[in-house]
Design goal:
Length: 721
């Protein structure tokens, strides 16, 4: 799309198409084409599953190179000498070494008419030696060469150069014979023909040449190309043209940011070329521009004249730390973690387990922007190394990440976790533990809330098929959450399902991986399905991965919950018979005063009780509690039975006090004393604990008030092994 040179299709009609693709009401449309390219919008959710990436083996990381349009447009200075000069600059200025590969020419390279055979003809004034000679020169520098056309009858310039519609194979064959390595295929003068068919036709033609040609689809986001273009090309424009201003650049970033789930190796969201060095923004703004494009895994195509680039421009374009984020082999586009009052935090997962994080200040005064390792999707380590990718300064943090950011500036860190810490022994709720990495389709992974698709905390109570959960993880497909186990854990048990907030549909697949080996699979779970329980053996695993993928109908409404996720870690008691009071509990809560070992509960400080006594019988071992009380032990699946005498301690005074004792195995009632009063003798209980991970001893009041409810678990014997 060219702001100054559309000659057909009424502008408002084109803008309505863009608005429909981006979920805007027609009444909200602006009336200038430049504003259309810059207006922020939230893209509509997909209606179909993401297509597989084009099978040409190219752009496994986002393409890097040069395109002349932003600096020359169709002026006379666009010619053979300029293109060769840019190729020379790639080498002499170190851009080739930094990763820039493609030297691409844009519109106006051809004559306005095809020859008698229907072939495109290079402009002999601009390119007196033809295009092949230019391509050969570029190749001689160890670089690759790209060309431009449009999926219409004419290209976008007002002079009306020939487009590729109806000439796909003829043009592709010609370009291949010239040694073309890259095609940017625009969308002008398209006669209203179906976009998918037009871009597919050229994809088929390029493939038929047998030459690897990177295919850049420049459809402007009109027909939601993120839903289909990956099947045909290596990248797709998501917006109208960028211009060299802060407003244009940052609004295009806003429109591209929500499309992160669609980017992957070989298939990239393209927010348009770089304006760095063209003079319309400050160096601070250009650093933000370059940082955000790298964070969004966008193609990095230089749009300024490298033959006259300033040292400041080259320093930005050659920042290898920032380039490494863009070119990271994991192939994930960064996502917005938080956005409030013009202060925006983005996080991008990287292949080595670190994260890049951008702190962007869109306001007009310096501001402090803060986040945490947990918020950007890291965790489980005692410390994190931070490297500022612009100043190169390094530091460490226990989790807090903060910086003073100038107006329109961006601070960009690479955050690397230190040695991970394994989970504590016991049955842990996953949402209470730090993850080592969390990546999500829309918005952040949420703890104990559903995923609301936007910023952290915008979800609601986890609910699957009408069942609500206090604990769990709220995600949105595609998502991937990793925990460090360090070989210390035994099993995971979790309810999974599509959250009830997905009222309009949604289908997903939940998978649990032990050290990248699949150990549990839910199959397709759909909205309104009841929760299903998954159990996974994690014995000896170094890490746990929770993965959610789309169920085959597109990622719309794929709000996926991991609910009541219980992770059992550590070994249970050793083989033999143990006095329960000799073992460490996982948790202990008493109604009055602490739970006591081998003493009754005296209601005040620890140790203020006396010998355990029920109905005149004394006990050397046991637990002294006061209702309501709850004591939990981790068993690790190694124990088989608990025997115990229960009753109200004689210190309550005769018939005072009444309670109920209950024994639970993994949340299931295994024994119940019924009502016991101070007048009763000890009552024996036996509970089958075979295979249980957790034992819970509960005492409640027997409905007559908590006075004198001194409750003893006397002589408890736990058999294990």
């Amino acid at each position: 799309m060219r702001t100054e040179r559309h000659s057909i299709r009424p502008f408002r009609q084109r803008l309505v198409g863009v608005a429909a693709a981006l979920g805007l009401a027609a009444g909200a449309l602006v009336t200038t084409q430049a504003a259309a390219a810059e207006a922020p919008a939230t893209p509509a959710a997909p209606a179909a599953p993401a297509a597989p990436a084009a099978d040409n083996g190219l752009a496994r990381t986002p393409q890097m190179g040069f395109n002349n349009w932003n600096s020359t447009h169709c002026r006379a200075e666009f010619n053979e000498a300029m293109v060769k000069g840019v190729a020379d600059a790639f080498v002499t200025q170190g851009l080739k070494d930094a990763g820039y590969t493609y030297v691409n020419i844009d519109d106006c390279w051809a004559l306005p008419n095809r020859d008698a055979s229907g072939n495109l003809v290079p402009d002999p004034v601009r390119f007196p030696n033809g295009i092949k000679a230019v391509a050969d020169y570029v190749h001689s520098k160890g670089l690759k060469f790209g060309i431009y056309s449009s999926a219409g009858t004419k290209t976008c310039d007002v002079q009306g150069f020939p487009g590729g519609l109806g000439h796909e194979q003829q043009d592709a064959n010609l370009w291949a014979s010239w040694g073309v390595d890259y095609l940017k295929y625009d969308n002008c003068n398209n006669t209203g023909a179906d976009a998918r068919q037009r871009y597919k036709a050229m994809a088929d033609a390029l493939k038929a040449t047998g030459r690897p040609i990177l295919y850049s689809i420049c459809e402007w986001g009109e027909n939601q190309p993120w839903n289909w273009a990956a099947e045909y090309g290596n990248s797709w424009r998501t917006t109208g043209d960028i211009s060299d201003s802060w407003t244009s650049m940052i609004n295009i970033a806003h429109r591209n940011q929500p499309l992160a789930p669609y980017a992957k190796p070989g298939a990239w969201n393209d927010p348009d070329m770089l304006e760095v060095g063209n003079g319309g923004m400050t160096d601070t703004e250009y650093r933000t521009h370059f940082s955000l494009w790298a964070q969004m895994a966008a193609p990095l195509l230089i749009g300024s004249d490298l033959r006259s680039a300033s040292p400041a421009t080259l320093a930005i374009l050659k920042n290898t730390d920032v380039i490494a984020v863009d070119q990271d082999s994991l192939g994930k586009q960064g996502t917005v973690v938080s956005s409030s009052g013009g202060l925006v935090v983005m996080s991008k997962p990287l292949a080595d387990g670190s994260r890049s994080v951008t702190l962007t200040n869109e306001t007009t005064s310096a501001r402090t922007i803060s986040t945490t390792a947990d918020a950007i999707g890291l965790g489980g380590a005692s410390s994190y190394a931070l490297k500022d990718l612009w100043t190169k300064q390094t530091s460490t943090t226990t989790g807090a990440i903060s910086a003073s950011v100038p107006a329109h500036g961006t601070v960009m860190y690479r955050v690397t976790p230190g040695s991970p810490v394994p989970p504590p022994t016991g049955v842990n709720q996953l949402s209470d533990l730090p993850w080592t990495s969390a990546a999500n389709g829309w918005g952040p992974v949420e703890r104990d809330r559903s995923n609301g698709e936007q910023t952290g905390g915008d979800g609601r109570t986890l609910t699957i098929g009408g069942t609500t959960y206090a604990k769990g993880l709220g995600t949105h497909a595609p998502s991937d959450v990793t925990y460090h186990l360090g070989g210390a854990c035994r099993s995971l048990s979790v309810d999974v399902g599509v959250d009830d907030e997905s009222t309009a549909g949604g289908s997903v697949v939940f998978q649990i991986y032990r050290d990248d080996a699949l150990v549990a699979d839910s199959g397709v779970r759909r909205a309104s399905d009841p929760p299903t329980r998954l159990t996974a053996d994690l014995s000896g695993a170094a890490k746990l991965r929770l993965v959610v993928t789309d169920g085959g109908d597109g990622i719309d409404y794929d709000h996926a919950d991991w609910a009541d996720a219980e992770l059992a870690c550590g070994n249970g008691p050793s083989a033999g018979t143990h006095a329960l009071s000799d073992l460490a509990w996982s948790a202990a809560v008493g109604g009055w005063g602490p739970v006591e070992r081998d003493r009754s509960n005296g209601e005040q400080p620890a140790g203020d009780g006396r010998t355990l006594t029920i109905g005149g019988t004394t006990y050397a071992k046991g637990l002294g509690t006061h209702a309501p009380s709850d004591v939990t032990y981790y068993l690790g699946g190694t124990c088989s039975r608990l025997t115990v005498n229960v009753g109200v301690d004689d210190e309550s005074g005769g018939s005072n006090g009444s309670v109920v004792f209950r024994i639970y195995r993994d949340g299931t009632l295994a024994a119940d004393s019924g009502r016991v009063t101070g007048a009763d003798t000890a009552r024996p209980l036996t509970a089958d604990l075979t295979g249980g991970l957790e034992l819970r001893l509960s005492v409640t009041d027997a409905t007559d008030g908590g006075n004198y409810d001194h409750a003893d678990w006397a002589g408890p014997q736990l058999t294990c092994g």
